[in-house]
Amino acid sequence: MSLQSIKYQRGSLEILDQLLLPVVSKYLPVRGVEDGWKVINKMQVRGAPAIAIVGCLSLAVEIYPEEFSSKKSLRQEIEGKLNYLVSARPTAVNMKISADELITLANELTKDDAITVGEMKQRFLKATEAMLEKDIADNRAIGANGAKAILEHVAEATGVATAGPVRVLTHCNTGSLATAGYGTALGVVRNLSELGKLEHVYCTETRPYNQGARLTAYELVHEKLPATLVLDSMVAALLRVKNIAAVVVGADRVAANGDTANKIGTYQIAVVAKHHGVPFYVAAPLTSIDLQIPSGDHIIIEVRPDREMTHVGEHRIAAPGINCWNPAFDVTPASLITGIITEHGVFKPEALKAEITKLLGL
Ligand SMILES: CSC[C@H]1O[C@H](OP(=O)(O)O)[C@H](O)[C@@H]1O
Q: Rounded to the nearest 5°, which phi and psi values hold at 49?
């Protein structure tokens, strides 16, 4: 059983406070949109898919007990509150995509005279609740697609019929603590393990929030997977001496040309992987792919407070008065990405837009 970042039942939402992990496991109530915005902005819950799910469910628990006098007033509440939630963190696109889809649903229900305001609320609640199961199903598909792609790549590169077990490297946290469960890049690791094809997974600490040391290591130890924590500064040495078969990371926003915004440090890992001839994969559900922007140059990169760099908890580790630069993400150009692993298959970056457009019938 993997760790559960989100606990939901109709009218009640709790999130595992990830600022306290791994030492303290404490669930926090999220009673409405204000709570939702705060736990996302403070990174008590984080991870592109989890942000969208918690954001939308925070609105669901807020409107659940309310009575609305008209569908118009309900639609206005939905649109205003979802757009507010999008402002909690700017880089991951999932919250924006989910908000747009739910606002479109609200507009359609408002126009349908056969739907009462009560039925509209129920349809909205069900649409937000469906995100939980869909995310887990998407992640399991990503895991299977990604494991297959990595094993096929290794088999072809080494001239063997069937590859594995393999060693892989991942960055940040893309597991059950970043999603509704199973994970994206960590879902690929889980699937490799389920296939008996995971020799070892290496996870980077991922300064300054330490998603790797505090969260990914926690998930891997919890499930007894063969894992080793490495410092962010060790990636080049690791790829030179440890026979890493592939790197697999998550994504916060993939642009139409395949450029990918992900946790700071991803770009330099991709450069090092290129230098060592190690395939570099991005695992991302369609809810993290933004075909509205042509390239990574258009992705807003969140800059977070200096204190996240100068302190570990309450302990200062940097000289008082030093300037800091703390972008939470960087952009990896499509040219450094071997494949983008989605729930619908693995795509070359240059083919992504056409493949997704065809898939969605756009
Ligand atoms: C499953 S996507 C997780 C994605 O989100 C992380 O960022 P943050 O911890 O700041 O929300 C990181 O970029 C991961 O790849």
A: -65, -40
Q: Name the closest-CA residue to atom 4, ligand 1.
A: 47
DSSP state of 93: -
What digits encode the pLDDT tens for the residues 46-98?
Answer: 999 999 999 999 999 999 999 999 999 999 999 999 999 999 999 999 999 99
Confirm if 162 and 119 have CB atoms less than 8 A apart.
no
Supply 310's token pair: 């100068």
Nearest-angstrom CA–CA distance, 282 and 102:
27
- Domain limits, the chain: 6-133, 141-360
Query: Which residues are near ligand 1 (CB < 6 Å)?
Result: 46-49, 172, 174, 178-179, 184, 211, 249-250, 252, 262-263, 328
Strand runs labelled E in the chain: 6-9, 12-16, 27-29, 166-170, 198-204, 227-230, 246-249, 253-255, 260-263, 280-283, 289-290, 311-312, 315-316, 329-332, 339-342, 345-347
Contact call for residues 174 and 143 (beta carbons, < 8 A): no
pLDDT per position as a tens digit, 203-252: 999 999 999 999 999 999 999 999 999 999 999 999 999 999 999 999 99
Residue at 147: amino acid letter: A
What class has domain 141-360? Answer: alpha beta
Catalytic residue at 290?
no
User: Could you tell me the sign of the dihedral formed by the alpha carbons of 342, 344, 348, 349, in that order?
Assistant: negative
Whose C-alpha lies nearest to ligand 1, atom 11?
A: 47
- Per-residue confidence at 2, pLDDT binned at 50, 70, 90? low
Q: Which CATH superfamily is domain 6-133 in?
A: translation initiation factor eif-2b, domain 1 (1.20.120.420)
Question: What are the phi and psi torsion angles at 35 (to 5°)?
Answer: -60, -40
Q: At residue 1, does pLDDT exceed 60?
A: no
Tokens of 3: 């760790």
